[in-house]
Predict the structure.
Amino acid sequence: MKNYSRKWLIQRITATLLLPLTFWFIYSTISLSKMDYTEITIFFKSYINLLLFYIMMIAMLLHSSLGLQTIIDDYVTSKNRSKSIKLIINIISYSLMFLITILIIRNLF
């Protein structure tokens, strides 16, 4: 058994986080469409908006990465192909998480 219960739990936690954050993001996106550039920069300079956006992006990447790995486990029969696809998924997911973290930290200063 390969930590399937831990992956299941993490997927449920991220799904629970993403539910209210999706409604916040939709509301914010509608609000942002009516703003000019300076108002948008002020919006993202707000620590609360920045934190909510960061949590949503990390949770979304983690949730989608685990979901894709589950699909690979269920439908790809070749062990070598499965490992290489999972490696690519992890590299892309963790690279994007690192990039988002760097950009958020850069935005703070």
User: Anything to note?
Assistant: The longest helix spans residues 79-108. Helices lie at 4-32, 37-45, 47-75, 79-108. Residues 47-109 form one domain.
